[in-house]
Amino acid sequence: MNKLCRSLILAAPLLAAFCGTVQGADTVEVYVDNLTSIRLPAPQDPVQRQYLGLSTGDAFTLPEVKAQAVIVEIFSMYCPVCQASAPEVNKLYESVEKDPSTKGRVKLIGIGANNTPVEVSVFRNKYGIEFPLLPDSDFLVQKAFAKPIRTPTLMVLKLNGSDKATLVHTHVGKFTDREELLKVLAGLLSAR
Fold this sequence. Notes:
Glutaredoxin
């Protein structure tokens, strides 16, 4: 067996442990206060800054996003499940932006767990992602979880003003049910 095959066989369990392989089967315990206090790098692109409602500054927290809810996808450029989910997450973004009841009220953000700006840019370009993707090369987002997170993890946060947010929905693993998430958003937005 050559060295490459042995390396791939040895790396497979590590990839499986990091990447969500079971659709929505995992539950996550999120420390919302930790998540909402993380200072994320603000997008450099003025269109993405405007989308999030950010005017100035190099960093921001999730509660600073001008929206009623934020969908946060924790992904990794190296995660094959994240790669497989990208087209459906893109469709989710398109659905939110096309629907007058969600456009402007719900924003999507991707956070590249342990990914550099270059890795995030490669993922964005390869999968044609239009919503902001932010690097988390220091894996700061991990502090928001009770246990190590798996990618992809998708969360819906209801923004309660100032620095508060409420976790409304989580999904770990391959994202395939856009309609279910749109129903969650409809219920969340109608409750206001």
